[in-house]
Structures are given as C-alpha cells and as structure tokens.
Amino acid sequence: MTDPTYEFSRAITRQPAASAVDGLRAHDIGAPDLSQLQADHDAYVSALRATGAEVTVLPSLNEYPDAMFVEDTALCLPQGAVVMRPGAPSRLGEVAEMEPALTGHFKDIRRIDGPGFIEGGDILVTGREILVGRSARTDAAGVAELAGIVSDWGHRLREVDTPGDILHFKTDCSLLDAETILTTKRLAASGCFEGYRLIYTAQGEEAAANTIRFNDVVLMPGGFPRTAEQLDQAGYKVVEINNSECAKLDGGMSCLSLRFSSV
Length: 263
Ligand code: CIR
Description:
The protein has 6 helices and 15 strands. The chain is of the alpha/beta class. The protein has one domain: L-arginine/glycine Amidinotransferase, Chain A. The longest helix is centred in the first third of the chain and has 16 residues, at 34-49. The structure holds citrulline (CIR).
C-alpha cells in the first residue's frame, strides 16, 4: 500500500534559465550564481532519481525567470491535476508551458480560470485534507475555485492564513508524512495545524522549513544542522541540498518540483 502524500513515482522539474538572475525576490541580496544554481538543481534531480522515481527535466524558459519553480504552476493529486493561476503577473504565462507536460500523466486536468489567483506554494496536501494559505499570491477567489474542483474528487480543503511577511504558506512548513508537519513556530502559532504531530525548525533556522518528503527521503536545504539533527532523531532519512542560490529568489525544496504518481 503506498501513501499518496509522500510516495511518488514521478516528478517534473525545469532547468534554471540564464534569466533566473532577474527572478522575483522580496529582498535583494544579490543575483544567484548561475553555475552554482545549475549544480544545485542537478543535485536535486539526482536526489529525486535516487529514490527510484522517474524525473522529467523540462527545458529552461528564458522569458520566465521564475519558471524553474514549477510547483507554483500546478497541483497534482491522485485523481487529477489542477493548473494554477499565479498571483505574480510575471509568472502567469508559466502555466501554459506546464500543461502539455502534464497531459500524458493525468486523465483529468482542470484549470483555475479566475478571476482569482492561486499558486502551488500555498498548498499543503496532508493525509486528511488540503490546506491552502491565502497570501500575497493566493486570494479567496482562487481558493474557492480550487475548493470546488477538489471537492469533485472527494478532498476536503481548508483555507488558512499565511503570515504577511512569508511568501508562500509552504515557505514555512512541509509534510513529513501523512500526519507529521515540519513548521516554524511563527506559522504554527496561528493554530492552523491543530491535531497534527509537529516538528519545529530550530530557532534561527526558519529557512529550513521548506523541505520535501519524497519516498524514503526528506530533501532539505543545507546549512541547518540543528533542524537536520531533529529530523534524523525522529527517524527521517535526510538528504541535504545546497540552496544558497535559490534562496536569493525565495525558493526552496518544494518549489523545484511537481510530485505525483502516474496512473
Ligand atoms: C517567486 O517569487 O515567485 C519566486 N522567486 C520564488 C517561488 C518559490 N516557490 C515556492 O515557494 N513554491
């Protein structure tokens, strides 16, 4: 029996483009170094493949500097895929580039038509529900449209708030298994995870919250030893990937892939 919240046979990623130096960022701490960004992306893809999954690497899209953050363009569920409608105007066109890559893998593909907006980074699928954080990128209308679609597929969606200074809901949390969430204390303080088993990022290591559980491993950004140690102690097999360059664009482990199992 597989657990669809973290066992996946496939992932889709996209090569970073040279234009990534112009990617969106909340605070400018310098442009990413392109060769390090590519090396980190390669390591990320290798780590996914090492779990036995088939990983598609789509070609870079120079006209969309943030297109390597594929997670924001779609939600992949066992019943089908939903193509998102990003709230960042410069990212709206990315979804049309992603849809053809999904068609071979999903029988049912739906679209968020608007007028609302929603990005995949605001969506956490757990064993019992789909949590969606409203944010600067995801509004109530976008959440409502998604709720209608996933209820057709038997999912319960719960709308929550992303604290104002956080880009996406999942910037500050990730699923470790169907019932366990890694989160920052500042996000959990809202009470949005009541009833779940929580592991908190170590103080000062809030940027470690965006990890992915992918088959038998947890991919986490390098440089957060105390949080890595906690996950190790809790029995998770941690693989660290350097994230220094993506972090300059507010990106992390979850943003870089769409994860699913083909039917
Ligand atoms: C953006 O601001 O849209 C990108 N620079 C980063 C997107 C990160 N995506 C994610 O957390 N899912």
